[in-house]
Amino acid sequence: MSSRSDIAAGRASIFDVASRARVSPATVSRALRGAPNVSAATRERVAAAARELAYVASPAASRLASGRTTTIGIVVPFMDRWFFMRVVQGVEAVVRAAGYDLLLYNLGDMTGRERFFDRMPLQRKVDGVIMVDVAIQPGEQVQLQELGVPVTVVGGAALGVGTVGIDDAEGVRMAVRHLAHLGHRRIGMLCGQLADGLARDVPGQRRDSFHRAVAEAGLETSPEWVLIEPWGVAGGAAATERLLCARRLPTALLAESDEIAFGALRTLRLAGLDVPGRMSVMGFDDHDMAGIVNLTTIAQPVLEQGEIAATLLLEALQDRADPFARVTLPTRLVIRGSTAPPGSWAARPDDTAPAVDRATG
Amino acid sequence: MSSRSDIAAGRASIFDVASRARVSPATVSRALRGAPNVSAATRERVAAAARELAYVASPAASRLASGRTTTIGIVVPFMDRWFFMRVVQGVEAVVRAAGYDLLLYNLGDMTGRERFFDRMPLQRKVDGVIMVDVAIQPGEQVQLQELGVPVTVVGGAALGVGTVGIDDAEGVRMAVRHLAHLGHRRIGMLCGQLADGLARDVPGQRRDSFHRAVAEAGLETSPEWVLIEPWGVAGGAAATERLLCARRLPTALLAESDEIAFGALRTLRLAGLDVPGRMSVMGFDDHDMAGIVNLTTIAQPVLEQGEIAATLLLEALQDRADPFARVTLPTRLVIRGSTAPPGSWAARPDDTAPAVDRATG
DNA sequence: GTGAAAGCGCTAACAA
DNA sequence: TTGTTAGCGCTTTCAC
User: Fold this and answer.
1) Residue B122's CB: how many other CB atoms inside 10 A?
2) Taking a C-beta distance cutoff of 8 angstroms, is the pair B285, B295 a contact?
3) Which of the residues A356, A358, A360 would you substitute to probe the B interface, choosing the one with the greatest number of B C-beta atoms within 10 Å?
4) Rounded-to-integer distance, Cα B116 and Cα B122, Å
5) Residues in chain B closer than 8 A to A266 (CB atoms)
6) CA B164 to CA B220: how far, in whole Å?
7) Which of B65, B121, B149, B151 could potentially form a cystine with B161 if both were Cys, beta carbons 3.0 to 4.6 Å apart?
8) Residue B149 CA to nucleotide C12 C1', Å?
9) How far is B86 from chain A, CA to nearest CA, in Å?
């Protein structure tokens, strides 16, 4: 039983509610959690008592007693990239609506990743976990299993877990085909370095698929046209700078991600190379900002991937679903202004380029 | 004591560790948590036993017994805006390094906000909470206090809590002065609507400061030059479209945020109005993408605000700091290519605008 | 449909 | 420095 002040502070215990409703604590527990075997009248009395005392069950106590945490964990490799936070957003909404809490864990870099798999900080803290685009290594998989909770992966394959993602290979193929249909025979690819050590599935997939798609389409290839630089805008810019030193230039560029494409666009503008007249550029993802810079891209449903992953996980927690389900979502070509047939370029004096593009920012 | 299989599954209890190390459970608890009053030898024996059994203390049990959760909660109004996720990133890093977990809560909209303050879902689940740019209403403040844990606010004022933010008024003043120094006499402002009902402090502050700064600088004003549309790129575009119907145009535009400025840039390009020749444009925040579109802006340290908020909160938890501390971080002008003296515009035929800007994306 | 009682696995006084 | 002893506040059999 709690003191008056505890009760006033909203720290009433289940005993307080029980005595107020003239039932046992067990009944309070059942009533409040919507368990069966409680008469409507009792349920109502308990609810009223709980309301009056502003009773909230101690999460720690019920977790200890029940073994359930009503919390799910989400693990992301980065927090400063649009894609991941968007997935988290989708997950958060679904998880929250189901009455679960969300524990966010950011790997950040290789050290962080090791620490994570080493100490498994989510241990006994969550009922399930969602991992976003981390290629789970064999050893890590063992650790994950030892968590003893269902795992769902977004954007990557893994054994013994549910999976949701897109067909990256197909997306890349769509991009290459679009460019080929426009008449491009020489297509370059801008990739983000994997050197952060955070093994992930998606980047490699896109890269490999590119080679296959180009071969399928019977296009020219050259090692000079595949550039690898650190991931992101700066990397895209750097890769494009390197590209511009090639013996022969491609007429189109596919970037592994929209952010990389943004960097490419910037470099091309600084260089005075008209997009898409002199160079077509495509991104991948359909980033929030892709519309702003008018980037043609392959869109994937990002929020939905988070929502589905969360739904899958939640269902697995209630034994209502295949915990190893695999969901593949469609990608789609979004045409904007950065692609056109090769050579659709009208000469124009440099100094008429908009000032906003001339500066060095 | 646990069964052999429990132990094998990493579910050893503190008793298992105790008997293996030939000490009492209490000593195990002390040793593992680094409490004082444990001899080095004992500490080592316990550590070894724990390691061998892969023992991890049950969070639920220690929370119940100690009353501490080693978890902090972060509440954001939106998850699809760069600023908020960047703050979360800063918070996550600091909190994680201190051995705490992070519970993420997204308000999303007015309904979500009400639900949050109504049910206080963080109740008894966290040792402290960080709220990002939510203007806490009087009633809500009471609820927050009933949480019984320290609260730190980022980007907004609140009573009885720690605060970290920037001087929005000063930032806006810097922007207006920069434009005035360039010779602009007519400056417009693009604002995001507050109609989402999620009362927040920052937007209003920037708006009010604009009027004051313009007055201070003795510039022209017109109600036509202050546009309010839904927040974001689309809103910025819409606001600019409305602006272009004004009797007389300003020569410069200050957007409440970079995202709004992005929308403005797009509309201006579609309209064929040269930036900065015909119209200077400034943003606020220094969004990741501001460099890409070459936007002059007022930068604020975003990650740092998260880091500082987390540090403050953590210190408050250890009674090592003023829980009502107020930290104000500096803003700074970042010159890029979207501002110039008014009228620094060279006429040019429409059809030479880069194709990427001509399309409708 | 409801109650009694035995934990869940720790931490924290207090003793030794 | 270490051990003993009570809880922490629920949930969950198992009776009734």
Assistant:
1) 23
2) no
3) A356
4) 9
5) 291-292
6) 34
7) B151
8) 21
9) 7
What type of residue sits at position B211?
A: H
Alpha-carbon A172 to chain mean position: 18
A104·B93 Cβ contact <8 A: no
**What Cα–Cα distance (Å) separates residue B354 from each residue in A290, A338, A344, A356, B269?**
16, 10, 12, 12, 10
Nearest Cα neighbor of A144 from A175, A172, A113 is A113
Q: Quick one: closest CA in A to B275, which residue?
A: A356
Query: Measured between CB atoms, which of A102, A148, A358 is closest to B9?
Result: A148
pLDDT tens profile A10-19: 589 999 999 9
Select from A60, A103, A289 the Cβ nearest to the Cβ of B102: A103
End-to-end CA distance of chain B: 66
Residues A288, A334 contacting (CB under 8 angstroms): no
**Residue B49 vs residues B13, B18, B37: alpha-carbon distances, Å:** 11, 8, 19
DSSP 8-state symbol, A331 = P
- By C-alpha distance, the chain B residue nearest A107 is B93
Tokens of B101: 């977990």
Burial letters for A233-248: b for 16+ Cβ neighbours within 10 Å, e otherwise?
A: bbbbbbbbbebeeeee
Q: Which pTM does this prediction carry? A: 0.92
Q: Tell me, what's the pLDDT at B177?
A: 98
Query: A257: distance to nearest CA of chain B, Å?
Result: 14
Taking an 8 Å cut-off on Cβ atoms, the answer to whether B277 and A355 are in contact is: yes
N-terminal to C-terminal alpha carbon distance within chain A: 66
Q: Does residue A347 register a pLDDT over 60?
A: no
Asked if B89 and A79 come within 8 Å (Cβ–Cβ), the reply is yes
Identify the CA nearest to B70 among candidates B319, B357, B343, B314: B314
The H or E element containing residue B263 is helix B258-270
Could you report the per-residue pLDDT of B309-360, keeping only the tens digit for each?
A: 999 999 999 877 777 889 999 999 999 999 999 987 654 443 333 333 333 3
Shortest CA–C1' contact from B33: which nucleotide?
C11
The gap between B60 CA and D10 C1' (Å) is 11
Asked whether the beta carbons of B281 and B296 are under 8 A apart, the reply is yes
pLDDT bracket for residue A358 (50, 70, 90): very low
Q: Which residues of chain A have a CB within 8 Å of the CB of B104? A: 88, 92, 102-104
